[in-house]
Every structure is written in structure tokens, then in C-alpha cells.
Specification:
With 180 residues, this protein is an alpha+beta fold. The chain has four helices and nine strands. The protein is globular.
């Protein structure tokens, strides 16, 4: 079933609002207030080893490996055009949310991507995952930014609950990335 949905998503257009950009995030001049904005940043550590470890963790989708959230197609690579299938299990419900990677950055001081939702996602929006290495301070930062609004009726009816789960995802993802 999951493979069929991933295959179907390959032919769907993305429908995110075009509000996020790498590496700088929200495009303020284009911001649409119909979308909720979430932004978080955490220090992972210092130095090349931390940056390289964080990059490898991203490539394994570790930022999603939360127990209640996971990437269902672990073989997916972080490359423009690839589909990412995020499985969520919460409150006795199961959802599979399909997005497409629309932008990637891979430089000596930054690694990350933005994905945009398809119609096979309970929300409409974009999410930006970025590891930045500040060479002046040796600090390695994880940034997570999302713009979203509910697409499906259940998500609209449960908007406060879905917002709580979005915040929980961000907290858990940051915690997961800090684990060596």
C-alpha cells in the first residue's frame, strides 16, 4: 500500500506556498498569513566531526526517527524531485504524508533541504531542514522551519491538536539530532 501511494505521488504536483528558501528560510515579502509558521533552532555541538555526523544523520532521515514518526521510504535520497513518505502514528490514528524535495543545499558549511506537500498529505505547506556550520565559531546548528495549514477535514477540525503534534515533532526532532 505504501509503495503504491509513493508511486502515485511521483506524478503529483507540489502545492506548497513557495514561502521557504535555502539557506535563509522564510521569504517575508511573500508570507501568506493563512499558513502557520514554526521555526526552531538548536546547537548540536562544535566542529567538523559534529557537522559531518549531522549530515550523515540527515541522509538516514534520523530527524524523523522519533518512534511515533518515521520516513517510510528510508531508501529515498535527499535530492530534488524525490518523494519523502512520512508516517505518523498518534492518538490511535495512522497517516502517510507524501512530499517532494524541491530544494537542496550541500556546501562545506550547510546541508539541508526543503520539501513541499502533495495532495497526498494531511497538510498543505513546506518544511525546511538545515544543518549549518558556522566556521567562525565552529558551532553546528540544526534549523527546522515549516509553513502549513490543514488540508483534510479531520486536520481542520482538530487544528489545536495538529498544532500540538507539529510542536512535539519539532522538539523531538531537535532532541533526536543531538544524540551522538
Amino acid at each position: 500500500m505504501i509503495e503504491k501511494q509513493i508511486e502515485a505521488a511521483r506524478y503529483l504536483a507540489v502545492d506548497g506556498p513557495g514561502l521557504l528558501a535555502l539557506p535563509r528560510g522564510l521569504r517575508i515579502k511573500n508570507y501568506d498569513p493563512a499558513f502557520a509558521l514554526d521555526s526552531s533552532r538548536s546547537l548540536l555541538g562544535k566542529g567538523d566531526a559534529v557537522f559531518n555526523a549531522a549530515k550523515r544523520a540527515f541522509e538516514r532521515w534520523a530527524q524523523f526517527d522519533l518512534g511515533w514518526v518515521r520516513v517510510a521510504n528510508q531508501e529515498a535520497v535527499i535530492a530534488t524531485g524525490h518523494i519523502v513518505a512520512v508516517e505518523v502514528r498518534a492518538l490511535g490514528l495512522w497517516t502517510l504524508n507524501l512530499s517532494r524535495v524541491i530544494e537542496v543545499i550541500d556546501t562545506p558549511s550547510a546541508f539541508g533541504f526543503i520539501y513541499s506537500t502533495t495532495k497526498l498529505h494531511v497538510e498543505q505547506g513546506e518544511e525546511r531542514f538545515l544543518i549549518e556550520f558556522d566556521r567562525a565559531t565552529s558551532d553546528v546548528w540544526y534549523e527546522l522551519e515549516a509553513v502549513s495549514r490543514p488540508r483534510q477535514m479531520l486536520a481542520r477540525l482538530g487544528f489545536p491538536v495538529t498544532r500540538a503534534f507539529q510542536h512535539r515533532f519539532a522538539r523531538n526532532s531537535h532532541r533526536q539530532m543531538k544524540v551522538p
